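hey can u run this one w/ heme C bound, need the C-alpha cells asap thx
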Amino acid sequence: MGVGVVGFAWSGCSIEKHYELLSFFFDGVPNPNALPVTGSAGGFESLRDSPTYSAHRPFLDEQCSECHTSQFSTSGVSADVCMNCHDDVPTSLERMHGPVAAGACLWCHVPHESAFASLLKEKPRAVCGQCHEQGLLNTSKVPAHADETRQCLECHYGHGGTSSYFLRPDAKRAQPGNQEP
Ligand code: HEC
Ligand code: HEC
Ligand code: HEC
Ligand code: HEC
Ligand code: HEC
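ok here u go:
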C-alpha cells in the first residue's frame, strides 16, 4: 500500500491546515482527532495507518463546500446531503435493505475518512449490531451468527441484493452441512 500512503499523507497535511483555519475562525470546531469516526483506537495518525483505511473522494479533494455551507457551518449539513451525488443508491438493487432505501447513510458510513473499508463508521459487526441485536439472530440455521470472529459482510451485502437476506453468492456454503473442510 506504499503508493496510497504517500497520497494520503500529502492530503492529510492540507486537510489539517483546513482544520487550523476553521479553528481560528470558529471556536469549538473539533480538531481532526475528533472526526466522527468511532471504533478507531488512537488518533488521526493511527486512523490513517489502518490497513483498511478508506477516505471519501470529495473530502480528499477538499470539496468541503459540496456538503458544508461556504461558512463551514458543520451543523448545516443536511441529512440527505449524500443524495447530491449518490441519488441512485437507495433504489439501486432489486431488494433494498431498509435503512439504505430510507437514505439513512450515516447510520453506517462516515462522511470523511475511516479506519474501516468503505467509510464504515465501525467494524462491520458493530455497524450491523446497532439495529440487529446479535442475540436475536437465528443461530440454529446459521451457527456463525453466534460467532464473534465472523463478520456479517462475509455473507451479507450491506445495501441489499437479489435474494432475501441479501446473501453473497458463496454464503450458503457457510451453513451447517455445507461447510468447506
Ligand atoms: C460528503 C460530504 C462531506 C464532505 C465532502 C465534507 N464533510 Fe465535513 N461533515 C459532513 C457531515 C455529514 C458531517 C456531520 C457528521 C456527523 O454528524 O456524524 C461533517 C462534520 C464535519 C465537522 C465536525 C466534526 C465532528 O466531529 O462532528 C467538521 C469540522 C468538518 N465536517 C469539516 C470538513 C472539512 C474541513 C471538509 C473538507 C476537507 C469536509 N468537512 C468535507 C460531510 C462532509
Ligand atoms: C460531492 C459529491 C459527493 C457527495 C455529496 C457524497 N459523495 Fe460519496 N463519493 C463521491 C465520489 C466521487 C466517490 C468515489 C467514487 C468512486 O471512486 O468510484 C464516493 C464514494 C463513496 C463511498 C465509497 C468509498 C469507498 O472507499 O469505497 C461511500 C461509502 C460514500 N461515497 C458515501 C457517501 C455518504 C455517506 C455521503 C453523505 C454523507 C456521500 N457519500 C456524499 C462523491 C460524493
Ligand atoms: C446498513 C448499513 C449501510 C447503510 C444504511 C448504507 N450503506 Fe453504503 N455500504 C455499506 C456497506 C457494508 C458497504 C460495503 C459494500 C458491501 O459490503 O456491501 C457499503 C458501500 C457503499 C458504497 C461503495 C460502493 C458499493 O456499493 O460497494 C457507496 C458509494 C455507499 N455505500 C453509499 C451509501 C449511501 C449513499 C447510502 C445512503 C443512501 C448508504 N451507502 C447507506 C453499508 C451501508
Ligand atoms: C439503521 C438500522 C439498521 C442497520 C444499521 C442494519 N440494518 Fe439490516 N435491517 C434493518 C431493518 C429495519 C430491516 C428490515 C427491513 C428490510 O428487510 O430491509 C433489516 C433487514 C435486514 C436483513 C433481512 C432480514 C429479513 O428478515 O429479510 C438482513 C440480512 C440484514 N438486515 C442485515 C444487515 C447487515 C449485514 C447489516 C450491517 C452491514 C445491517 N443489516 C445493518 C435495519 C438495519
Ligand atoms: C456464515 C455466513 C453468515 C454470517 C457470518 C452472518 N450471516 Fe446472517 N444469515 C446468513 C444466512 C445463510 C441467512 C439466511 C438464513 C435462512 O435461510 O433462514 C442469514 C440470515 C440473517 C438475518 C435474517 C434472519 C435472522 O436471523 O434474523 C439477519 C437479520 C442476519 N442474517 C443478520 C446478520 C448479521 C447482523 C450478521 C453479523 C453479526 C450476520 N448476519 C452474519 C449467513 C450469515
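The beta strands are 54-55, 95-96, 113-114, 160-161. anyway lmk if its weird
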